[in-house]
Design a protein that fits this description.
Length: 301
Protein backbone atom coordinates (compact mmCIF):
# COMPACT_ATOMS: atom_id res chain seq x y z
CA UNK A 1 0.00 0.00 0.00
CA UNK A 2 1.27 3.46 -0.92
CA UNK A 3 1.03 5.65 2.17
CA UNK A 4 2.17 9.20 2.83
CA UNK A 5 5.55 8.28 4.25
CA UNK A 6 6.66 6.41 1.15
CA UNK A 7 5.78 9.31 -1.18
CA UNK A 8 6.48 12.28 1.09
CA UNK A 9 8.45 14.11 -1.64
CA UNK A 10 5.22 14.57 -3.59
CA UNK A 11 3.76 16.69 -0.78
CA UNK A 12 6.41 19.41 -1.01
CA UNK A 13 6.73 22.21 -3.56
CA UNK A 14 9.89 22.70 -5.59
CA UNK A 15 10.25 19.43 -7.48
CA UNK A 16 10.57 19.70 -11.24
CA UNK A 17 7.51 18.59 -13.18
CA UNK A 18 9.35 15.97 -15.24
CA UNK A 19 9.50 12.82 -13.11
CA UNK A 20 10.86 10.63 -15.95
CA UNK A 21 8.14 8.12 -15.12
CA UNK A 22 7.41 7.29 -18.75
CA UNK A 23 9.65 6.59 -21.74
CA UNK A 24 8.92 6.08 -25.43
CA UNK A 25 8.15 2.43 -26.17
CA UNK A 26 8.93 0.46 -29.30
CA UNK A 27 5.97 -0.59 -31.40
CA UNK A 28 4.39 -3.89 -30.31
CA UNK A 29 6.67 -6.71 -31.35
CA UNK A 30 4.95 -9.95 -30.36
CA UNK A 31 2.16 -9.30 -32.87
CA UNK A 32 4.78 -9.40 -35.64
CA UNK A 33 5.74 -13.04 -35.10
CA UNK A 34 2.69 -14.53 -33.33
CA UNK A 35 -0.66 -14.90 -35.06
CA UNK A 36 -3.23 -12.89 -33.04
CA UNK A 37 -6.59 -14.43 -32.25
CA UNK A 38 -9.12 -15.17 -29.53
CA UNK A 39 -10.43 -18.24 -27.74
CA UNK A 40 -13.80 -18.67 -26.03
CA UNK A 41 -12.80 -21.41 -23.60
CA UNK A 42 -9.91 -22.18 -21.26
CA UNK A 43 -8.51 -24.95 -23.50
CA UNK A 44 -7.80 -25.31 -27.20
CA UNK A 45 -7.10 -28.54 -29.08
CA UNK A 46 -5.71 -29.28 -32.53
CA UNK A 47 -4.48 -32.05 -34.77
CA UNK A 48 -3.27 -32.50 -38.35
CA UNK A 49 -4.04 -35.04 -41.03
CA UNK A 50 -2.73 -36.16 -44.39
CA UNK A 51 -3.99 -38.17 -47.34
CA UNK A 52 -2.48 -40.85 -49.58
CA UNK A 53 1.24 -40.84 -50.27
CA UNK A 54 1.13 -42.33 -53.80
CA UNK A 55 -1.21 -43.87 -56.34
CA UNK A 56 -0.57 -47.57 -56.89
CA UNK A 57 0.09 -49.10 -60.28
CA UNK A 58 -2.51 -51.74 -61.22
CA UNK A 59 -3.18 -54.21 -63.98
CA UNK A 60 -6.23 -54.17 -66.21
CA UNK A 61 -9.30 -54.95 -64.13
CA UNK A 62 -7.36 -55.16 -60.88
CA UNK A 63 -9.17 -53.89 -57.79
CA UNK A 64 -8.15 -50.57 -56.32
CA UNK A 65 -6.36 -50.65 -52.99
CA UNK A 66 -8.13 -48.17 -50.72
CA UNK A 67 -6.27 -46.45 -47.92
CA UNK A 68 -7.48 -44.29 -45.05
CA UNK A 69 -6.19 -40.78 -44.45
CA UNK A 70 -3.80 -40.56 -41.51
CA UNK A 71 -4.76 -38.51 -38.47
CA UNK A 72 -2.07 -37.10 -36.22
CA UNK A 73 -2.12 -36.92 -32.42
CA UNK A 74 -4.26 -34.44 -30.55
CA UNK A 75 -2.45 -31.58 -28.86
CA UNK A 76 -3.99 -29.24 -26.32
CA UNK A 77 -3.05 -26.10 -24.42
CA UNK A 78 -4.58 -24.05 -21.61
CA UNK A 79 -4.48 -20.28 -21.27
CA UNK A 80 -2.78 -18.50 -18.36
CA UNK A 81 -4.03 -15.58 -16.26
CA UNK A 82 -1.88 -12.58 -15.38
CA UNK A 83 -2.71 -9.90 -12.83
CA UNK A 84 -1.20 -7.00 -10.94
CA UNK A 85 -2.21 -3.88 -9.08
CA UNK A 86 -1.45 -1.43 -6.31
CA UNK A 87 -3.19 0.32 -3.43
CA UNK A 88 -2.87 3.98 -2.50
CA UNK A 89 -4.38 5.84 0.44
CA UNK A 90 -6.77 8.72 0.02
CA UNK A 91 -4.54 11.08 2.00
CA UNK A 92 -1.63 10.37 -0.34
CA UNK A 93 -3.72 11.34 -3.37
CA UNK A 94 -5.13 14.44 -1.66
CA UNK A 95 -1.73 15.78 -0.63
CA UNK A 96 0.09 14.96 -3.89
CA UNK A 97 0.97 18.35 -5.40
CA UNK A 98 2.04 16.84 -8.75
CA UNK A 99 -0.73 14.36 -9.56
CA UNK A 100 1.69 11.46 -9.88
CA UNK A 101 0.70 9.06 -7.12
CA UNK A 102 -2.54 7.94 -8.72
CA UNK A 103 -1.53 7.35 -12.34
CA UNK A 104 -2.82 3.81 -12.19
CA UNK A 105 -3.96 3.41 -15.78
CA UNK A 106 -0.61 4.39 -17.25
CA UNK A 107 1.46 2.15 -15.00
CA UNK A 108 -0.81 -0.85 -15.33
CA UNK A 109 -1.10 -0.48 -19.10
CA UNK A 110 2.68 -0.53 -19.42
CA UNK A 111 2.94 -3.59 -17.18
CA UNK A 112 0.32 -5.41 -19.25
CA UNK A 113 2.11 -4.60 -22.51
CA UNK A 114 5.45 -5.78 -21.14
CA UNK A 115 3.85 -8.98 -19.87
CA UNK A 116 2.70 -9.79 -23.41
CA UNK A 117 6.11 -9.00 -24.86
CA UNK A 118 8.20 -11.00 -22.40
CA UNK A 119 5.80 -13.96 -22.25
CA UNK A 120 5.74 -14.12 -26.04
CA UNK A 121 9.53 -13.97 -26.16
CA UNK A 122 9.61 -17.09 -23.98
CA UNK A 123 8.46 -19.03 -27.04
CA UNK A 124 11.59 -17.83 -28.85
CA UNK A 125 13.87 -18.62 -25.93
CA UNK A 126 12.39 -22.13 -25.71
CA UNK A 127 12.39 -22.71 -29.46
CA UNK A 128 15.39 -25.07 -29.35
CA UNK A 129 14.80 -26.84 -26.02
CA UNK A 130 11.07 -27.52 -26.08
CA UNK A 131 10.87 -27.47 -22.28
CA UNK A 132 7.59 -25.54 -22.31
CA UNK A 133 6.42 -25.23 -25.91
CA UNK A 134 6.11 -28.40 -27.99
CA UNK A 135 4.56 -28.95 -31.41
CA UNK A 136 2.48 -31.71 -32.97
CA UNK A 137 5.42 -34.15 -32.85
CA UNK A 138 6.25 -33.43 -29.21
CA UNK A 139 9.46 -31.62 -30.15
CA UNK A 140 10.74 -28.05 -29.93
CA UNK A 141 9.80 -25.45 -32.52
CA UNK A 142 13.25 -25.80 -34.14
CA UNK A 143 14.76 -29.29 -34.23
CA UNK A 144 17.18 -31.33 -36.35
CA UNK A 145 14.86 -34.35 -36.63
CA UNK A 146 11.13 -33.58 -36.68
CA UNK A 147 9.04 -36.71 -37.07
CA UNK A 148 6.16 -37.14 -39.54
CA UNK A 149 2.81 -38.88 -39.11
CA UNK A 150 2.93 -40.79 -42.42
CA UNK A 151 6.62 -41.27 -43.11
CA UNK A 152 9.61 -42.76 -41.33
CA UNK A 153 11.86 -39.94 -42.53
CA UNK A 154 12.69 -36.92 -40.39
CA UNK A 155 12.97 -33.24 -41.27
CA UNK A 156 15.25 -30.53 -39.89
CA UNK A 157 14.39 -26.88 -39.40
CA UNK A 158 17.56 -26.26 -37.41
CA UNK A 159 21.07 -26.69 -38.87
CA UNK A 160 23.09 -29.66 -37.66
CA UNK A 161 25.79 -27.11 -36.76
CA UNK A 162 24.46 -23.77 -35.55
CA UNK A 163 25.90 -20.77 -37.36
CA UNK A 164 26.13 -17.17 -36.13
CA UNK A 165 24.18 -14.34 -37.75
CA UNK A 166 25.86 -13.97 -41.15
CA UNK A 167 25.43 -14.63 -44.85
CA UNK A 168 26.47 -18.21 -44.20
CA UNK A 169 23.96 -18.64 -41.39
CA UNK A 170 21.05 -17.09 -43.25
CA UNK A 171 21.79 -19.19 -46.33
CA UNK A 172 21.87 -22.30 -44.14
CA UNK A 173 18.32 -21.48 -42.98
CA UNK A 174 17.22 -20.76 -46.55
CA UNK A 175 18.56 -24.15 -47.61
CA UNK A 176 16.56 -25.84 -44.84
CA UNK A 177 13.38 -24.26 -46.20
CA UNK A 178 14.13 -25.91 -49.54
CA UNK A 179 14.30 -29.30 -47.81
CA UNK A 180 11.05 -29.07 -45.84
CA UNK A 181 8.61 -31.94 -46.30
CA UNK A 182 4.94 -32.51 -45.59
CA UNK A 183 3.59 -35.26 -43.33
CA UNK A 184 3.98 -37.82 -46.15
CA UNK A 185 7.63 -36.94 -46.55
CA UNK A 186 7.09 -35.11 -49.85
CA UNK A 187 8.73 -31.76 -50.71
CA UNK A 188 6.63 -28.74 -49.80
CA UNK A 189 6.93 -25.17 -51.01
CA UNK A 190 7.26 -22.89 -47.98
CA UNK A 191 9.13 -19.67 -48.57
CA UNK A 192 10.25 -17.40 -45.71
CA UNK A 193 9.43 -13.70 -45.82
CA UNK A 194 10.36 -12.52 -42.31
CA UNK A 195 13.46 -12.65 -40.12
CA UNK A 196 13.95 -12.20 -36.37
CA UNK A 197 17.37 -11.15 -35.14
CA UNK A 198 18.86 -9.41 -32.12
CA UNK A 199 19.33 -5.69 -31.68
CA UNK A 200 23.10 -6.17 -31.63
CA UNK A 201 22.90 -7.35 -35.26
CA UNK A 202 21.13 -4.32 -36.75
CA UNK A 203 24.20 -2.98 -38.55
CA UNK A 204 25.09 -6.40 -39.91
CA UNK A 205 21.49 -6.88 -41.09
CA UNK A 206 21.65 -3.55 -42.92
CA UNK A 207 24.82 -4.71 -44.65
CA UNK A 208 23.29 -8.07 -45.60
CA UNK A 209 19.89 -6.90 -46.80
CA UNK A 210 20.60 -3.32 -47.83
CA UNK A 211 23.17 -3.84 -50.56
CA UNK A 212 22.98 -5.23 -54.08
CA UNK A 213 26.55 -6.41 -53.67
CA UNK A 214 27.58 -9.14 -51.27
CA UNK A 215 29.02 -7.68 -48.04
CA UNK A 216 32.13 -8.87 -46.22
CA UNK A 217 33.85 -9.90 -49.51
CA UNK A 218 36.38 -8.28 -51.80
CA UNK A 219 34.94 -9.64 -55.07
CA UNK A 220 32.01 -7.22 -55.30
CA UNK A 221 29.74 -10.03 -56.48
CA UNK A 222 25.94 -9.90 -56.51
CA UNK A 223 24.23 -10.29 -53.16
CA UNK A 224 22.24 -13.47 -53.82
CA UNK A 225 20.99 -13.64 -50.24
CA UNK A 226 19.31 -10.24 -50.46
CA UNK A 227 17.76 -11.28 -53.77
CA UNK A 228 16.40 -14.52 -52.29
CA UNK A 229 14.89 -12.54 -49.41
CA UNK A 230 13.75 -9.49 -51.34
CA UNK A 231 11.25 -7.50 -49.28
CA UNK A 232 11.80 -9.59 -46.15
CA UNK A 233 10.19 -8.20 -42.98
CA UNK A 234 12.83 -7.54 -40.35
CA UNK A 235 11.94 -7.93 -36.68
CA UNK A 236 14.50 -6.77 -34.13
CA UNK A 237 14.19 -8.92 -31.01
CA UNK A 238 14.34 -6.90 -27.79
CA UNK A 239 12.62 -9.01 -25.13
CA UNK A 240 14.05 -12.54 -25.32
CA UNK A 241 16.91 -13.57 -23.07
CA UNK A 242 19.18 -15.21 -25.64
CA UNK A 243 21.22 -12.72 -27.65
CA UNK A 244 22.48 -15.12 -30.34
CA UNK A 245 19.46 -16.96 -31.75
CA UNK A 246 17.70 -15.89 -34.95
CA UNK A 247 15.01 -17.21 -37.29
CA UNK A 248 13.55 -17.05 -40.74
CA UNK A 249 9.82 -17.72 -40.91
CA UNK A 250 6.90 -17.64 -43.29
CA UNK A 251 4.02 -15.37 -42.33
CA UNK A 252 1.70 -17.52 -44.43
CA UNK A 253 2.65 -20.82 -42.75
CA UNK A 254 3.43 -19.46 -39.29
CA UNK A 255 1.45 -21.61 -36.84
CA UNK A 256 2.56 -19.86 -33.63
CA UNK A 257 -0.28 -17.99 -31.94
CA UNK A 258 -1.15 -15.42 -29.28
CA UNK A 259 -4.77 -16.18 -28.36
CA UNK A 260 -6.63 -13.81 -26.05
CA UNK A 261 -9.11 -15.34 -23.62
CA UNK A 262 -9.74 -12.09 -21.71
CA UNK A 263 -8.44 -8.76 -23.01
CA UNK A 264 -6.50 -6.54 -20.64
CA UNK A 265 -9.02 -5.31 -18.10
CA UNK A 266 -8.60 -2.38 -15.70
CA UNK A 267 -10.65 -2.05 -12.54
CA UNK A 268 -10.62 -0.10 -9.29
CA UNK A 269 -12.41 -0.07 -5.97
CA UNK A 270 -12.32 1.75 -2.65
CA UNK A 271 -11.72 0.19 0.76
CA UNK A 272 -14.08 1.75 3.31
CA UNK A 273 -12.03 0.94 6.42
CA UNK A 274 -8.59 2.10 5.22
CA UNK A 275 -9.64 4.93 2.92
CA UNK A 276 -7.48 3.42 0.20
CA UNK A 277 -8.08 3.07 -3.52
CA UNK A 278 -7.15 -0.23 -5.16
CA UNK A 279 -6.28 -0.48 -8.84
CA UNK A 280 -5.76 -3.70 -10.72
CA UNK A 281 -5.28 -5.08 -14.21
CA UNK A 282 -5.88 -8.66 -15.34
CA UNK A 283 -5.73 -10.58 -18.60
CA UNK A 284 -5.81 -14.15 -19.89
CA UNK A 285 -4.03 -15.36 -22.99
CA UNK A 286 -2.45 -18.44 -24.51
CA UNK A 287 0.79 -18.74 -26.49
CA UNK A 288 1.26 -21.96 -28.44
CA UNK A 289 2.18 -23.53 -31.76
CA UNK A 290 1.20 -26.76 -33.49
CA UNK A 291 2.99 -27.05 -36.85
CA UNK A 292 6.69 -26.19 -36.95
CA UNK A 293 7.14 -25.92 -40.72
CA UNK A 294 6.81 -22.17 -41.00
CA UNK A 295 10.02 -21.65 -39.01
CA UNK A 296 13.74 -22.35 -39.41
CA UNK A 297 16.13 -21.13 -36.72
CA UNK A 298 19.54 -21.50 -35.21
CA UNK A 299 21.10 -21.12 -31.76
CA UNK A 300 24.79 -20.29 -32.14
CA UNK A 301 26.99 -20.33 -29.07
Amino acid sequence: MIVQGAFNLLFRPGLRKNFLDEYTQFEPQYTQYLQPGTIDGPEIEATIMTGLKRLNEREDGEKINYEDPVLGPKVAAVDREYAGGFTITRRTVEDDKYGKASQAAKWLAHAARMTSEYRSAELLDDAFAGATFKGIDGLALCHTAHTLINSTSTVANRPASDVGFSLTGINALLDLFQLLKDENGDPTDIQPNAIIYNSSEITKAMQIFGSDKEPFTANNQDNATAQRLSGVSQIVSRYKANTKSYWLFSKKWNDAHYLTRRPVDFDDTFDFDTDAAKYKSTTRFLIWFVDWRGWCGTLPS
